[in-house]
Amino acid sequence: MKIRSLSLKIWAIIITGVLVIFLIIGFSFFAKSYYKNSSDILNNLILLKNYNNKLKYQVLYSNLFLYSNNDNIAKIIHHIRKLNKKIDKNVFFKKFYKNVYEKFKAYENEVFNVENDIFEYLRYNQPLKNSLMYLLDSIDIAKFDKNDYKTVLHTISLILLYKNSLDDDFIKNIDLKKIEKFKNSNDIYEQAFYRNLKVYLKFLPKQRFYLNRIINSNLNEKIDNTITAFRYKLSKNLKIFEMLSYLLVSFIIIILSLLIIYIVRLDDKIKTITYLLEYDSLTGLKNRFSFKKDIKKYNSPIVVIFNIDKFKNINDYFGSNIGDKVLKEVGLFIEKYFKNKKIKGGVYRVGADDFAFIFENVDINDIKSIVKDLIEQIEIKDFKINETIFNISMSAGISKKFPYLENADIALKNIKKDIKDKFIVYDNKMNKDVFLNIKKSKEIKEAIDNYKIIPYYQPIFDKEGNICKYEVLCRVKVKDEIKSIYPYLEILKENKLYHRVTQIIIKEAFNKLYSNKNLELSINLSVEDILNKEILNLINQCFLIKKDISKRVTFEILESEIENYNEVNTFIKVLKQKGVKFAIDDFGSGYSNFNRILNLDIDYLKIDGSIIKDILYSKNSKLILETIINFSKKADKVTIAEFVENKEIYDEVKKMGIDCFQGYYLAKPSQNLEGK
Question: What is the pTM of this model?
Fold first, then answer.
């Protein structure tokens, strides 16, 4: 199947399928990316929370232990800064979690504040540590007396209790008055104890202030708010994704359902199309397409074509509906015949009223017997269609040579020429007629196209030997030879060119009438011409040019062709009113019905040439001619004898009472008018 020939439905299915695939892939990539980015951000936020806790822990640790390392605090702050920067630059976070991002920015600001507090905390914490270490060492190196020693131990104990408990009451219980005396002591260690204690008590409130700010900062609260908001937004979006997934799945199910329904329907249509491609819808038999396909399966086939004789008459008289029923009944009869005889092969309807059967491995003489028997069976059967009985006559052509169907058809056409045979086997000699017809077809078409259809005129004489009119005859110029039109008549009808020749002759004849005011012409018309609208229009137009010309025109109608009496009678009546005369040509050729001829209101009876030619030797011809002459005189018709070939015939028919004469003895047809 070509791409352009694809139906819109198939294109719609393909496009819809592609869109669905892209939609699924796109949705899958987006959902996967969304989930991964969201997970990364959430994990980083949770990690930030952990770092916050660690940071506070390290700050407390540095407060409790004199020899703690601040590097851990610096590392944690570094990690927090790095994570904050990573999250802050995340475009996905800003785009899809706009509100959460604002909470995160509030957290970042809190981190900045806590970092400053830690810096301040460490700035005061380190001197406190140094002072405390000296206060502890002074117990061993200073030479306190017994009472002072107790005071020093008590003071250091309160400091340590405060340091470990962060209870301000311990600091308040330090008695500075007892320590003041060390300020001016001679012992430099006691003086140092005094100064370190003063430093410690001086920096302690500030260190405590920043420590409290750090410990009580909103870091965790803000990161928790961020995480909670993020999880809420993520959960909300995941629900949207879930709904979209359901919608997508539903959409896919609907599309798949539609596709399945359409595929099922398409399959039914394909089966129907396949059936119509291979079978004849009228008879249910296999058709010509199947024949051409099946014949290739046979090794040595013999093909028979059965044709219903004059089936056209059934269609013309009873209508195509009845004709179709006849075809169906005949087709079924042929199929049933071969089935009952258990003859292998197939019955095909290969033409309007043509049925074919393929034999294989059957002797040709047996096939002839089968064909003969089948035709006899059909011809004795009454086919009853709508209460009307039809008796069918059938002919058959047989071929055992390739191309089987065409050769069988040639054999069939040869039978139609000679109706005494009911069937015939194809012979190579039959092709000669085919080639001859092809040659004639080419010649007549070239003659029409190149203005080589030529009118000839043969005079018709009265009893006194005067020319009363001329019959217009048609000749064809083939190369340099002038030929009669009669060998080409069947070809003209088969090729739908007959009316073009008639039109040429009518135009030439009327042109001759226009230029010769005393000329009378007799022009031949077939019944087909009379029933043709173009011919009728041409004749009417010719009469309109010169109205009085109609009285110099006689139309000759071939008697044997008159079957549509009503149409012919109407044509004659209309033109008789204009003064046109009519003649029946070849009257007495065996089809004459005197009563019907009289009803046609004709003026001349041109007696068939076969009667005139034998008038000197045949009693029957003489008797027929006498009857026609008597009939004509009583009916007031003028008789014309054709084929007057010699003086003896002329004298005889003149003596019998013929009115007018035409033949080679008197004058041959000529392209020029005699005496004109």
Answer: 0.50
